[in-house]
Amino acid sequence: MRSTKAAPLAVFRIFFGFLMAISIIRFWALGWIDKLYIKPLFHFSYYGFEFIKPLGEWTYVLFLICGLSAIGVALGYKYRLSIILFFLSFTYIELMDKTTYLNHYYFISLVAFLLIFLPVNAYFSLDAKRQPILSFEQVPQWTIDALKLLVAIVYFYAGLAKLNSDWLLQGMPLKIWLPAHYDLPILGNFFHQNWLIYLFSWSGAIFDLSIPFLLLYKRIRLVAFVLVVVFHMLTWVLFPIGMFPFIMILAATIFFDAKFHDKLLSIAAKALKINKKKFDNQKKLLQSFNKANKLKISLLAVFFIVQITFPFRYLAYPGELFWTEEGYRFSWRVMLMEKAGYASFKIVNGKTGEHFYVNNADFLTPFQEKQMSTQPDFILEYAHFLKKHFEKQGHEYLEVYVESYVAINGRRSTAFVDPTVNLADKKESWKHKNWILPFNDEIKGL
Fold it and tell me: Which of 51, 73, 98, 306 is most buried (CB neighbours < 10 A)?
């Protein structure tokens, strides 16, 4: 089995851990824990994970555990415990409310899960310093290749998702988003012009599809990395996507060879007055084919099979993906559409016919209402919540109907949900939601 220096894993661990710690601190400092997880009266759940809810004031403790474990990961201190705690706490945070779903949250959970099985604390870590038995200068090549594969999947699938008529032929939704940045120096003057919008659309698709392969090619790797930095810094300036650009820039560094990472660690060691030579012990971590390692390899094989196939589950559903969003999440469809909607819920006494309308602001934050109004699973879950809520108030024979309209990528607003269907009788499942009205247009592509 091929071996290589462990420096790339060490650099990735340090960057990842500290970047995650900064993300948690930023989330806390901006007041988002209270705003997103404590103040709302209702939280949207992922199907199958309805039992995961915010913990009230204890949610702060959860974030504290997540932040401290991220620092433990960066330092390589009690690494296995730190990475497991980080994975569990961060994923729990991600699952507390579906409203906050972002592709890069999902990516972080996947990376954290993968890092549980990789020897990223074998080099330049507190574990390696304190316990020489854990210290190795060389690790199996596949441990680094696994991270490269995960990063490549994210980019390539994001590129495939852009191969649709709205993105390439209509310049949507960039035609909506870019003109709003007219005040940006230099570029802002051109954001209303079609040639620049289409340049951004096509170059974005080409970038995502090609960058994993360009990073693999040593002769142009540095140029490719510069493109990664420019691309993600531009998206950071233009769009409110938080830490995602920095996470992807970090992830791209794994494609550099061990010499590059070794130099970075040498610079860090000199600045921090760390004796790096102590870790350069020429020891090689050998992977024996015992039961534990066979189980680990099998688990990672299943993990990657799922990552490669799961984004295509949308093919099992009828209708337009952008409209129904059945199979849309967890498939690396990054910033592909602009959706706006309106949903008015009517509560009906099925026996007497008496009815009243719901003021969504009584139960949802503006952000939750915006997300709910365009996504069918949100609408269904909210309808069930309303039924239970008003039953507790003494109402009987309740039926829940919704009048919903949605506009997508600049199209006119059209009816979204069948207003004659009692949503209180519909259950969430993996099946197609046949109460979604047909999309009256066509978006061609993958």
Answer: 73
- For residue 230, give both structure tokens: 């420019």
- State both tokens at 229: 């930095």
Both structure tokens of 100 = 């906050």
Q: Which of 131-140, 291-300, 302-311, 390-399 has the lowest mean pLDDT?
A: 291-300
Q: And the tokens for 137?
A: 């200068």
Q: Tell me the per-residue pLDDT of 2-19, one tens digit each, with 9 for 90 and over.
A: 889 999 999 999 999 999
**Nearest-angstrom CA–CA distance, 112 and 443:** 35
